[in-house]
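Box 4.2: Ligand-aware structure prediction
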Amino acid sequence: MDQVIDKTAFEAEVEQLVQNQRDYFNTNATRPIGFRLEQLKKLKGILLRHEDEMHDAIYKDFGKSKYENQLVEIYPLIDEINMAIKKLKKWAQHKSVKTNLLNFPAKSYLVPEPLGVSLVIGAWNLPYNLSLTPLVGSMAAGNTTILKPSELPARTSDIMAKIINENFDPNYLRVVEGAIPETTALLKQRYDKIFFTGSPKVGKIVNKAAAENLTDVTLELGGKNPAIFTKDCALKMGVKRMIWAKFVNSGQFCITTDYALVHKDIKEEFLKLAVEEIEKNNFSRENNNYVQIINERNFDRVVNLIDPDKVYYGGTHNREERIINPTILHHVSLEDAVMQEEIFGPVLPVIEFETIDEAFKIVKRFEKPLAAYLFSDSSATKERFLNELPFGSGAINDCVMQISNPNLPFGGVGHSGMGRYHGKYSFECFSHFKSILDKPTVLETNLKYYGYSEKQMKIIKVLG
Ligand code: NAD
């Protein structure tokens, strides 16, 4: 990544880039569906051609294996592009709605249109997926885009910049690399859409910058995600699903379980099964199923959350390798350090509860999470989970897999974010829907003209 030396020069460069993209957008070149499809196909071709380099970059950044990179980054991304290519014509059609009697005769419909110049800011934990999936939405909707990937996986950021900047017109799509100073400079400009993935803390900075220009903003943030295990759940299967989802990407996954709430009668069995599952998965770098912690700062942060007196399993780590082995904590209290922030690492605190009311009360002590999971066999508890707990997305008797269904929109609520994307929701996220009343000129009702009589008022009341 280039070191930015002259901040003023960088700001001037960015200002020019945004202006050039706005001018290009205003030529209407990005609006035709044919153009959008062509660009999406081009993006797909470039990604497939450079797959090996992309694998190599992410492996060097934090040890993510080719298999895992395919599974959680590249396949979902290519699926997203394929879906946009297949469905774009349908998504971009006018959407008819009913016309009320007062406006009869007329047609009413919604017209999707691109917002203009988008800024997409990515996070580091799934760096390809979280930068390029929103980009697909921006392109499908017909915008121009400036993409700023996270600087932490530096080679991954570099490869995205290289393959995109070498192949696309910068007036249409440009990757700008950088850390906080560069992102701060980018946020000084006016955009028509800002799409941000990252922490709630930086989300607030982005939201303030967007508010300066009343820019439409989507924030994909994080939080403390609970997984609740009730006494009647299918425990073995539930633990199997949750443990894989907790330790994939070494727990550096925004929708993974942050903490487990387990009924006191099944807690011992839960802990035993959790250890068995960890050992069955054999999470390790040698097995290509365990990534490094992204950097030393995060390594130290996560290690400091492990209270040695509360370790049930694991707790070991290697700073040189930036590896924290899968760790389970028990006898955890809500006052412990591990319960004061989002963990974002391979540490699972287990807290026991007696009644479901007590479990829900614990969840509600925290900001609304990005995800929540319930493992239960009881229809009544499932209903209560759906109706009483606020969260972005979730699953019943599973964990994280809701993200892999593109028909389910993905997003948070409150401190875990605003707005949603994936599949057609990405198209909608980067579009404005103009509401149109389309009148023929042959017929006219006289109700609104020439003064208001009692009779007119009565008719208007009936027509609504
Ligand atoms: P982060 O907020 O530190 O960084 C995200 C982006 O913001 C990066 O591109 C970074 O360069 C930029 N940035 C950082 N500090 C900034 C500042 N002061 N001013 C302007 N820009 C700044 O987040 P992260 O560490 O990359 O990711 C971890 C967080 O992201 C966790 O909270 C996690 O839950 C969340 N997350 C959410 C999703 C989601 O889809 N909702 C996905 C992945 C991660």
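In the box above, the bound molecule is nicotinamide-adenine-dinucleotide. Residues 121-125, 130, 148, 150-151, 179-180, 183-184, 197-199, 202, 205, 220-222, 254, 342, 344, 370, 412, 417 surround nicotinamide-adenine-dinucleotide (CB under 6 Å).
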